[in-house]
């Protein structure tokens, strides 16, 4: 009896482990640097398919060059749109993959949809627990009755470090270039060899065949050169006033320019045929590699329990109430790519890599009247992240907020602790890794912190500042242009044009106003700088000799412990401030960083930059629909959080459909402009 019980326990234990193994989640690749979740349950309610379908049909029709869309109702593709979707991208030196995971609610409908979008002649492959097909050379899709996976794969053969190779080549080239000069050797000029020249020109044709449609005219010219050289053994003598197309002597019969892609086989150029075969062979080999990579990934996924095992750090700042969540690993994106390799060639490259060694998460919300994006930034090194957070804990200054007004286009305000920048730089240096000068740099930073009084520096500019863009004005400026006659003689011409000039006020707080007054006094009294810098009471003016630029005059003033830099003398005048302005004023002094910009007002100021009728139509359309952007940023726990809001101004049912409606109007306007006859 005891034996039977023990055997039963073993069987149950074995089945438990087998079940756990069979239901194991698929682990995401270790080199994932982008992850996105789409909340289909919420987004599905916000999409108006009656509007969305015609847009998708038109886009896919244009993309494939067809008169009729391949699919009529994109709300019925067999994909469960009110379920979550998962997207991620992995990246390494040789393979880059973008993957998208969907839930299928109608397998037959999904396969029907796939058949409508895949290339003709491509057969669906059926495996034990899924089917798959390639939609293009680098796009693959696999599915069963529950899930579908789309993969876009790029593969590059691994290669050695080209930067080092390039450096070696450069050194060799330099040695070759210097040797003749140092030895004072003069090589005799070689006689002209027309046969060698013909070979060079044929090589040029071989290169031009790669983009034959765009280079027909150039090929025709080179063929003319070849015919001339074969007959005369030299290029035609240059005559005054002659052009490249005027040859002396007999008329040359020129081969017709190559036709389009489908007529290339008739060219009968052995070099091109060999090149084409080689390219076709490389494409086939690359496709085999891509197909193998896709199959391996599909096997791994469909042999799991069809759930992704997402690392917790990727979803640490995800809000379940957001419509879209995105995670990005900037550290891997920058440091593991070509940029990271390049920076590692320099002594201080690790410092820049240390700056980018961070993660960012985004929660996106499509609300009724606005789009909201919340970004959470976190450096991977806790010490560096702490130093960033300390910078965001500056004092508030309400005096600067008085510059905000109703008529302004926008503003950007900061209230940070300027004395903490040294700590941040020191933390970045320590986190830079094994750099050749890391110890020396750390010592320099320590010395600077000792020699320079951080509190004294903070008094000069504590970290409170604001930039207010009041309006955009138009200004006529003079500039010099050059015209040429038929003999290419240059003639200098004076012209005028309208340029957009920003009317702005930049101000920052100071606890040492005397320091700034002494700087401005020095500029106004120094022999060299006083030519452009002058003083009138407590107002200092910088002015260029000629009014040729859009910013040729600036005004400076120190008042009430604030330094002002203005584009006009009346930059300090307090303008109308409504209840809405007072809200902006409150936010500008509350948050470490905040701002707002009225895009509609900005486009009004840029109106003269749009010249043609079609450009002005586009401007009117965009200006009618664009809204206002505002943002605020602050330190929250172990992250820096920035909230960005974009308010919409049209009659769309929500902010998601606002973008589709705007895209639809822009598309229709462009199509109308194409159909208008040219008179």
Report on this structure.
By secondary structure, the protein is an alpha+beta fold. It has a domain at 1-158 and 284-310. The chain contains 20 helices and 22 strands. Helix 6 (194-208) packs antiparallel against helix 7 (216-232) and helix 13 runs antiparallel to helix 14 (438-451). The longest helix has 33 residues, at 270-302. It starts with a helix and ends with a helix. Residues 233-265 are annotated as: Disordered. Residues 205-232 form a coiled coil. Keywords: Coiled coil, Signal.
Question: Which secondary-structure class do the elements indicate?
Answer: alpha+beta
The helix count comes to 20
What is the first-to-last residue Cα distance? Answer: 102 Å
Query: Using only CA atoms, what is the Rg?
Result: 34 Å
Helix content: 25-40%
Low-confidence stretches: 7-22, 161-187, 240-252, 260-267
Categorize the overall geometry: globular
**What percent strand?**
15-25%
What oligomeric state best describes the polypeptide chains here? single chain
Coiled coil: 205-232
Keywords: Coiled coil, Signal
Region (Disordered): 233-265
Signal peptide: 1-22
């Amino acid at each position: 009896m005891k034996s039977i019980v023990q055997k039963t326990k073993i069987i149950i234990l074995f089945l438990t482990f087998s079940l756990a193994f069979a239901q194991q989640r698929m682990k995401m690749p270790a080199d994932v640097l982008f992850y996105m979740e789409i909340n289909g349950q919420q987004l599905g309610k916000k999409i108006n398919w009656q509007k969305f379908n015609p847009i998708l049909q038109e886009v896919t029709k244009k993309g494939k060059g067809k008169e009729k869309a391949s699919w009529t109702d994109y709300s019925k593709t067999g994909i469960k749109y009110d379920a979550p979707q998962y997207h991620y991208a992995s990246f390494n030196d040789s393979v880059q993959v973008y993957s998208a995971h969907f839930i299928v609610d109608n397998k037959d409908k999904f396969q029907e949809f796939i058949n409508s979008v895949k290339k003709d002649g491509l057969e669906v492959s059926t495996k034990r627990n899924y089917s798959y097909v390639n939609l293009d050379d680098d796009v693959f899709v696999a599915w069963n009755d529950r899930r579908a996976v789309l993969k876009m794969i790029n593969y590059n053969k691994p290669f050695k470090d080209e930067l080092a190779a390039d450096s070696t080549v450069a050194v060799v080239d330099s040695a070759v270039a210097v040797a003749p000069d140092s030895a004072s050797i003069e090589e005799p000029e070689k006689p002209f060899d027309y046969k060698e020249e013909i070979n060079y020109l044929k090589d040029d044709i071989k290169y031009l065949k790669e983009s034959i449609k765009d280079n027909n005219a150039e090929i025709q010219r080179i063929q003319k050169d070849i015919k001339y050289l074969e007959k005369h053994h030299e290029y035609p003598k240059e005559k005054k006033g002659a052009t490249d197309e005027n040859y002396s002597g007999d008329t040359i019969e020129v081969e017709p320019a190559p036709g389009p892609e489908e007529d290339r086989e008739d060219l009968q150029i052995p070099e091109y045929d060999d090149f084409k075969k080689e390219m076709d062979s490389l494409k086939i080999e690359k496709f085999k590699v891509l197909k193998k990579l896709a199959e391996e990934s599909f096997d791994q996924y469909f042999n799991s329990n069809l759930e992704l095992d997402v690392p917790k750090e990727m979803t640490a700042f995800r809000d379940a109430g957001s419509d879209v969540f995105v995670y990005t690993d900037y550290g891997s994106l920058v440091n593991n790519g070509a940029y990271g390799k390049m920076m590692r060639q320099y002594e201080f490259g690790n410092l820049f890599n240390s700056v980018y060694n961070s993660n960012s998460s985004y929660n996106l919300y499509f609300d009724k009247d606005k789009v909201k994006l919340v970004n959470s930034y976190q450096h991977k090194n806790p010490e560096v992240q702490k130093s960033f957070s300390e910078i965001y804990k500056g004092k508030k200054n309400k005096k600067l907020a008085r510059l905000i007004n109703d008529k302004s286009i926008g503003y950007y305000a900061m209230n940070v602790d300027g004395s903490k920048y040294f700590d941040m730089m020191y933390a970045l240096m320590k986190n830079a890794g094994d750099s050749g000068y890391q110890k020396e740099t750390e010592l320099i930073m320590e010395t600077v912190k000792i020699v320079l009084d951080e509190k004294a520096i903070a008094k000069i500019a504590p970290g409170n500042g604001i930039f207010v863009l009041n309006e955009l004005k138009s200004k006529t400026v003079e500039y010099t242009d050059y015209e040429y006659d038929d003999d290419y003689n240059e003639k200098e011409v004076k012209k005028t044009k309208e340029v957009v000039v920003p009317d702005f006020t930049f101000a920052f707080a100071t606890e040492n106003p005397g320091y700034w007054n002494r700087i401005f006094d020095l500029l106004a009294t120094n022999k060299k700088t006083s030519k452009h810098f002058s003083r009138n009471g407590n107002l200092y003016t910088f002015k260029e000799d000629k009014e040729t630029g859009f910013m040729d005059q600036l005004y400076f003033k120190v008042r009430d412990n604030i330094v002002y830099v203005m584009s006009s003398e009346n930059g300090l005048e307090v303008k109308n401030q409504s209840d809405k302005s007072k809200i902006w004023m409150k936010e500008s002094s509350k948050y470490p960083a905040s701002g707002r910009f009225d895009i509609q007002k900005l486009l009004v100021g840029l109106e003269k930059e749009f010249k043609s009728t079609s450009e002005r139509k586009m401007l009117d359309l965009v200006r009618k629909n664009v809204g206002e952007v505002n943002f605020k940023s602050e330190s929250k726990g172990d992250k820096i959080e920035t909230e960005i809001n974009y308010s919409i101004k049209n009659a769309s049912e929500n902010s998601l459909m606002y973008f589709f409606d705007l895209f639809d109007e822009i598309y229709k306007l462009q199509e109308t402009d194409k159909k208008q006859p040219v008179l």
